């Protein structure tokens, strides 16, 4: 808890001077003002994060995939067996998963952090063993974690972010693996946004109608039997996952060190709602990589005030949407750094309207 | 005209076997089926284009920026002076424009093709001089081009695509520069989709209300005084630009050689409507890089049946949206090439629904 509070206290507001300089500079570059749309806003935010204009290009980048299992799997909320979590960790370590392919293309370092897989995993160089417990308890029956377990997972995420920044990474991406984790995400989004479980729950990796109804029922029952109060850590412990907790810490850790974080999909979005409740300033360091096909993700992004960069009906997780968005993030900084100005290029500015 | 007809005749249907193989392979990869959304469909199409599954990663990529001026500039449809076209060509050649910055990040070769700039340009290695005429005539007053001029510009684009493929490029991106060219685009989109000029006309690089009304009036008057018939080349000549014609040829040239083309924004979208009218099969080789903020672009994409990859309120042109989309295109092919299958990775498939 000491590390968590220390980290929250270390998150600074985005730098006002750098933000203003970036807005001014965007108006001097050889393009119509505003013509790079969302990328201009993003470049301004990256300047505020780095406290300098132009900001450095956010590279090298690292992706931490936080893996954990979920007791709620017992409720039949997914057609995938629980052992797939561990199998996919092995796939990540071997470099065969979708996110590995995407990360190789974008030169992103991939590490897997076991914060709670319900199986013993083969040690591997790219795998960090930080098991808080072997999967959460079943959130349909009891709180998924104790408060101490939730804090331990959050602090694991903080430490991972700290170590990656210390190792030289200047952009952190979130990833996740955990069979049944869209159910926990749906509960977190409902708890933090006030939306109903029917609105926040989707088909995850592709469930049928009966399973979707079961997911909604499970989330409704959990939130009804253990109403969430004002304590974000209590809410996280009650219905969240160990990877949600770790991702929340990872985001806080990156923000505390002044490094932007690219969020992946609905699991990261749910975790970012925890972050927002603990430390609203930290949301300024978050870039929404993509909009997932999960309805809860759109609700989470709206609550966070973030506009996603990629919107391609992805619903894979792993960090795939964050990695796909990375070149857009890097491009926005590069524009501020490398483009010519009207003056330097001898290009005539448009006439002021008559 | 001979080269144009020969090129149209050389465009093959997408390969059915490779398309089917790609669909099957997507179902064997270690991810829920469909979870990579639009990228899965794109990978299937790239397989059909390459006539092999998995398809090669579309690289190296080249961007041709077709530059030309527009007689309709005289109608006051933009606050930018016409000389900015030539100034921006110089900026491209010097590497200072937005698209240069983006292209450097994505390792895209950039060339500029002068198909009709109304000024003498300094020779430069990255600048190809293929001036068909010094700007179009004023489409508000008379046909913008003769039919022969339009065909000459189309065949210039074909030759540029041919030479880039011969030089080893395996993905071609469209770019454009031409002050006032959103007015001509609006006219083309209205002519080819049947939408009204009020629907197809937008603020381009940022015009005020009065100028927007003038743009709409100009397009309405042109289409009323010279109604478009069934001949796409006649329509192109009547209200299009030299860069629209060249881009149409460039797309046809790429399709004829079996290479995918990433379209930029509304200028490319308008040109692709000409392509669709001349040779519907060629649209199969087109990837919509992004959705521009111009309303005519959304109408053009709908008519083409293409879903854009990037949707970030860009309205710059130059090829910027195409370059930003390139990593997504390359990622989709790489997924088919490099991902592990359920069998090879020892990952359990999900249970069939009960």
Q: Would you write up a description of this structure?
A:
The structure is a homodimer of 354-residue chains. Chain A has 354 residues and is of the alpha/beta class. Chain A is built from 15 helices and six strands. Chain A has helices spanning 2-10, 16-28, 38-50, 83-94, 98-106, 147-166, 181-193, 197-200, 209-225, 232-239, 242-256, 266-278, 295-304, 320-338, 342-345, and strands at residues 61-68, 108-116, 127-129, 171-177, 261-263, 286-288. A six-stranded parallel sheet of chain A has the order 3-2-1-4-5-6, with helices on both faces. In chain A, strand 5, helix 12 and strand 6 form a beta-alpha-beta unit.
Q: How would you summarize what this structure contains?
A:
Two copies of one chain form a homodimer. Chain A is α/β, with parallel strands linked by helices and 354 residues long.
Helix-residue proportion of chain A = 40-55%
Count every beta strand of chain A, where a strand is a DSSP E run of 2 or more residues: 6
Which descriptor suits the 3D outline of chain A?
A: globular
Q: Kindly state the mean pLDDT of chain A as a whole number?
A: 96
> What's the structural domain tally of chain A?
2
Strand order of the largest sheet of chain A: 3-2-1-4-5-6
> How many distinct helices of chain A?
15
Largest sheet features of chain A: 6 strands, parallel
What Rg of chain A, in angstroms, do the CA atoms define? Answer: 20 Å
Q: What is the CATH C level class of the largest domain in chain A, in words?
A: Alpha Beta
The CATH superfamily of the largest domain in chain A is identified as Nicotinate-nucleotide-dimethylbenzimidazole phosphoribosyltransferase (CobT), large domain
Strand residues, percent of chain A: 5-15%
Instruction: State the end-to-end distance of chain A.
Output: 61 Å
Q: What kind of oligomer do you see?
A: homodimer
Largest two-chain interface: A-B, 66 and 67 residues
Low-confidence stretches of chain A: none
| Secondary structural class of chain A | alpha/beta
The secondary-structure element order of chain A is HHHEHHEEHEHHHHHEHEHHH
- What is the CATH topology descriptor of the largest domain in chain A? Rossmann fold
């Amino acid at each position: 808890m000491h590390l968590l509070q220390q980290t929250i206290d270390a998150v600074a507001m985005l730098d006002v001077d750098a933000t203003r300089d970036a807005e001014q500079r965007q108006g001097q570059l050889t393009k119509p003002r505003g013509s790079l749309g969302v990328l201009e806003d993003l470049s301004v935010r990256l300047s505020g994060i780095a406290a300098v204009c132009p900001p450095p290009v956010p590279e090298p980048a690292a992706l931490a995939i936080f893996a954990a299992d979920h007791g709620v799997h017992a409720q039949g909320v997914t057609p995938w067996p629980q052992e797939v979590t561990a199998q996919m960790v092995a796939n990540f370590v071997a470099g065969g998963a979708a996110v590995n392919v995407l990360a190789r293309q974008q030169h992103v370092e991939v590490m897997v952090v076991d914060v709670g897989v319900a199986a013993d995993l083969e040690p591997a160089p790219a795998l960090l063993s930080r098991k808080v417990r072997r999967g959460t308890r079943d959130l349909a029956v009891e709180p998924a974690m104790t408060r101490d377990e939730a804090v331990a997972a959050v602090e694991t995420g903080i430490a991972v972010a700290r170590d990656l920044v210390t190792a030289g990474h200047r952009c952190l991406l979130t990833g996740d693996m955990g069979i049944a984790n869209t159910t926990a995400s749906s509960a977190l989004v409902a708890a933090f946004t006030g939306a109903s479980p029917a609105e926040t729950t989707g088909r995850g990796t592709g469930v049928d109608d009966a399973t979707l109804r079961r997911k909604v029922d499970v989330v409704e029952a959990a939130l009804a039997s253990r109403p969430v109060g004002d304590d974000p850590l209590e809410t996280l412990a009650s219905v969240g996952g160990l990877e949600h907790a770790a991702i929340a810490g990872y985001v806080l850790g990156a923000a505390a060190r002044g490094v932007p974080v690219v969020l992946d999909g609905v699991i990261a979005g749910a975790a970012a709602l925890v972050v927002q409740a603990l430390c609203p300033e930290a949301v300024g360091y978050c870039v929404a990589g993509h909009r997932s096909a999960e309805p809860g993700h759109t609700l989470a992004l709206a609550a966070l005030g973030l506009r996603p960069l990629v919107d391609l009906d992805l619903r894979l997780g792993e960090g795939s949407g964050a990695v796909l968005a990375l070149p857009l993030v890097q491009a926005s900084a590069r524009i501020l750094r490398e483009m010519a100005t009207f003056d330097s290029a001898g290009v005539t500015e448009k006439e002021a309207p008559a």
